[in-house]
């Protein structure tokens, strides 16, 4: 609560104005609302759409239940229609997913209804004055004074203009600024307000064919319709039309009722649905208004003790429904900083400099977000008006097939950064996505560190290429390999098998790979066999995790969605060379905060449940068979050949097992397949990381202990770290020993960097409090104690749980 006398003059009993008044009242801050019209909530024919970012604040203010009661029908689905009213795309689960993710659905009601709800919630209604049109404003050293048309004057500490796009407060603020500091306001701003579209918006009653809980967007060339259902038998509608050019400032037209009716006649027979025309809406209207749709975010929202909020500072196209919601957000941001400023104030009241500092913080916090909303709304309106041939092609051939995950990701970027009231408790609405102000910190971009990571991965991949392939040429390994294949023998007694698939190109490739691994699998050197077993156990978690990431929904449109291709590449060219490239692609895909959101994290439960069995059957079993001391050489080579595409087998088996499990589930519940738990995948993923991590850790610990107890017989350093990669080798086995050393070394470097980046990413997006320094220490310890593969699995286990939002769930 405020501890010092302080009064806020609010001009305009708008959504922004009354929201701010209620917020101030909740914090014990004095206010006066001056409304130019004689009524607080006149019916002007306007509806308003409320979205999670606005509803969350209204919930804090105790208005949410009243809003829900008035709205009656939350939006359940959105439908996109063509010029004949035929649906070509829809999101049937829009309302349920929005509520599950963000805690609130989308609501439509009369603007009048929302204003009445806000007014009714204000206890001090005597502080709200009607028929008080502001005429002049004067800043003073420690106060600001307003004179109204009735001749009355009101004095307060600050004045807030919530009086719309044609704001009197903004005009007076500019006059004050020009009088005191002419450079404060950019003179070009007077004609910067732009309008490309105009709109007839209205409310109709008794309209059949508009499903309750639906929003219909009807796309046409250079005009469009938005038709949401309303409470009772109301239907809201917007006919948006391109003005033909973008006009500015005083050139923005204002329309008469006659012009409205003329435009309505031009569109009289437009289809809204196949059975509903625009004429049906217009003939049954109770209210309508024809107006231009200006859009702009002003450069200066304040001067000294004067500030504008809502449409007076940022105005958008109505197509995304963010006008009223953003007005509520800005009011909340102002309240937060004002309460904080009053709490920190050591004098009797805030000085003008302190007031300006508060206003500046509000604009800094809100300006970039409002600019982004403006651009999004303009782009959306251009799309719905099919302004170009490319947009028409996109709407017809691309838009209906865009994965829904992309839509949910875009909504994440709209809703999650939203402001709320810091001093009021967050309502306990069940949701899976945390808002940014509920996290440990506000998500930030990687900045220059992200680009540095890209460069480091390129360096690691380049170094790996040199150590694996250039060194193999220099030290003679590849010549020895070619000699073995040319002579068709490994030794005097063991010939090279030439046929596996009857396909010459594939057989030639398999001969090369089998020759490489046969020499290692059958080596008489215990050190070399141990090295290979350790190496293959270390990459086991990678095989599993690459598969997991390939089946994750958020990666479907990225390079990570093809784990079989990555598996083929690292079997052919070495994990040490391919892993840095894979992690580079992964680093690029995960650069945005939405990548780490709890809902984008999820896998299908049926996929997650079968990955471990697929890894066991497709990778672990073939790997173990390759080590079996089978005497018959041709059979041993065949087993090693079968092992080569093991990572691909894992992916194929995952698809097969998943399909079979879905069929079995549906057969067991023949009437309806059971819906999946939103985090039903997590226990299966836990098991994947635990099993593969433990196997890898056991090999690492056993090898370390074996080297310790063996004395000088086996050296861990000599086994894993090459002394000279370019020195000539005596035989193929020695060359391959060095190859696997470098392969392991480069893979370990790539894993270390990726684990560190993952730890830091979760810190920078606010999901974790583990800093990069603590993460670095933990990784060094993990690599030493349990090895790179097990450390990778451990980090992924921890990362998975962090991304489920468990910490967030405990805080709300």
Automatic annotation (TrEMBL):
An annotated Gene Ontology molecular function: monooxygenase activity
Residue ranges of the TM segments? 448-465, 529-548, 568-588, 608-628, 640-658, 687-708, 745-763, 775-798
Q: Which UniProt keywords apply?
A: FAD, Flavoprotein, Membrane, Oxidoreductase, Transmembrane, Transmembrane helix
| Residue span, FAD-binding domain | 7-344
| Family stated for the protein in its record | Belongs to the paxM FAD-dependent monooxygenase family.
What name does the UniProt record give this protein?
FAD-binding domain-containing protein
> What species was this sequence derived from?
Talaromyces proteolyticus
């Amino acid at each position: 609560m405020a501890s010092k006398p302080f009064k806020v003059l609010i001009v305009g009993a708008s959504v922004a104005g009354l929201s701010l008044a209620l917020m101030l009242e909740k914090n014990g801050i004095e206010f006066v609302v001056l409304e130019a019209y004689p009524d607080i909530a006149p019916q002007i024919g306007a509806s308003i759409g409320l979205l999670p970012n606005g509803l969350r604040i209204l919930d804090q203010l105790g208005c949410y239940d009243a809003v829900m009661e008035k709205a009656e029908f939350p939006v359940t689905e959105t439908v996109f229609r063509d010029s004949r009213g035929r649906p070509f795309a829809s999101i049937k689960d829009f309302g349920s997913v929005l509520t599950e993710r963000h805690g609130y659905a989308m609501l439509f009601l009369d603007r009048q209804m929302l204003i009445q709800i806000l007014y009714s919630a204000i206890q001090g209604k005597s502080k709200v004055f009607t028929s008080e049109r502001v005429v002049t404003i004067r800043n003073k050293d420690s106060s600001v004074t307003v004179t109204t048309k009735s001749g009355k004057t009101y004095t307060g500490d600050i004045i807030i203009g919530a009086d719309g796009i044609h704001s009197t407060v903004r005009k007076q603020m500019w006059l004050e600024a020009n009088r005191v500091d002419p450079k404060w306001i950019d003179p070009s701003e007077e004609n910067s307000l732009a309008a490309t579209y105009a709109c007839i918006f209205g409310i109709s009653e008794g309209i059949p064919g508009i499903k309750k809980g639906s929003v219909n967007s009807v796309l046409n060339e250079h005009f469009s319709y938005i038709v949401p259902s309303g409470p009772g038998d109301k239907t809201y509608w917007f006919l948006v039309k391109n003005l033909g050019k973008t006009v500015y400032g005083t050139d923005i037209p204002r329309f008469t009722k006659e012009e409205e009716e003329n435009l309505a006649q031009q569109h009289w027979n437009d289809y809204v649905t196949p059975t509903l025309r625009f004429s049906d809406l217009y003939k049954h209207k109770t209210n309508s208004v024809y107006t231009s749709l200006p859009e702009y975010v002003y450069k200066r929202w304040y001067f000294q003790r004067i500030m504008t909020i809502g449409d007076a500072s940022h105005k958008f196209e109505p197509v995304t429904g963010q006008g009223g919601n953003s007005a509520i957000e800005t009011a909340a941001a102002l309240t937060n900083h004002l309460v904080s400023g009053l709490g920190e104030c050591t004098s009797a009241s805030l000085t003008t400099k302190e007031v300006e500092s508060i206003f500046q913080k509000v604009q800094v916090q809100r300006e970039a977000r409002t600019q982004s909303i403006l651009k999004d709304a303009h782009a959306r309106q251009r799309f719905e008006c099919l302004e170009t041939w490319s947009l028409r092609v996109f709407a017809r051939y691309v838009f209906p097939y865009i994965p829904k995950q992309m839509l949910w990701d875009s909504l994440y970027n709209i809703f999650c950064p939203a402001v709320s009231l810091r001093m009021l408790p967050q309502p306990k609405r069940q949701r899976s996505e945390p808002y940014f102000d509920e996290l440990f910190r506000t998500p930030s971009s990687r900045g220059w560190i992200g680009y540095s990571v890209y460069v480091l991965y390129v360096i690691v991949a380049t170094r790996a290429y040199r150590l694996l392939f250039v060194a193999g040429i220099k030290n003679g390994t590849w010549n020895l390999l070619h000699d073995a294949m040319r002579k068709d023998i490994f030794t005097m007694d063991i010939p090279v098998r030439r046929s596996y698939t009857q396909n010459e190109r594939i057989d030639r490739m398999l001969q090369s790979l089998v020759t490489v691994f046969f020499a290692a699998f059958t080596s008489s050197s215990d050190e070399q066999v141990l090295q290979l077993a350790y190496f293959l156990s270390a990459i086991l978690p990678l095989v599993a995790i690459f598969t997991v990431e390939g089946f994750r929904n958020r990666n479907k449109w990225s390079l990570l969605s093809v784990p079989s291709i990555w598996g083929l590449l690292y079997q052919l060219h070495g994990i040490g060379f391919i892993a840095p490239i894979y992690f580079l692609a992964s680093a690029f895909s995960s650069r945005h905060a939405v990548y780490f959101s709890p809902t984008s994290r999820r896998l299908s439960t049926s996929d997650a449940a079968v990955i471990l069995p697929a890894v066991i059957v497709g990778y672990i079993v073939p790997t173990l068979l390759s080590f079996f001391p089978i005497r018959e050489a041709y059979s041993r080579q065949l087993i090693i050949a079968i092992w080569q595409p093991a990572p691909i087998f894992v992916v194929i088996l995952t698809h097969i097992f998943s399909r079979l499990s879905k069929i079995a589930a549906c057969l067991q519940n023949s009437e309806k397949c059971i819906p999946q738990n939103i985090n039903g995948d997590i226990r299966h993923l836990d098991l994947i990381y635990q099993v593969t991590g433990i196997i890898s850790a056991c090999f690492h610990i056993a090898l370390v202990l074996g080297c310790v107890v063996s004395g000088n017989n086996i050296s861990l350093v000599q086994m894993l770290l090459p002394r000279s990669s370019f020195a000539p080798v005596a035989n193929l086995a020695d060359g391959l020993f060095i190859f696997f050393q470098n392969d392991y070394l480069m893979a370990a470097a790539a894993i270390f960097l990726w684990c560190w980046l993952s730890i830091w990413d979760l810190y920078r997006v606010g999901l974790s409090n583990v800093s990069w320094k603590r993460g670095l220490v933990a990784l060094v310890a993990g690599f030493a104690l349990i090895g790179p593969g097990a450390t990778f699995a451990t980090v992924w286990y921890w990362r998975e749980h962090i991304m489920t939002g468990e910490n967030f769930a405990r805080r709300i």
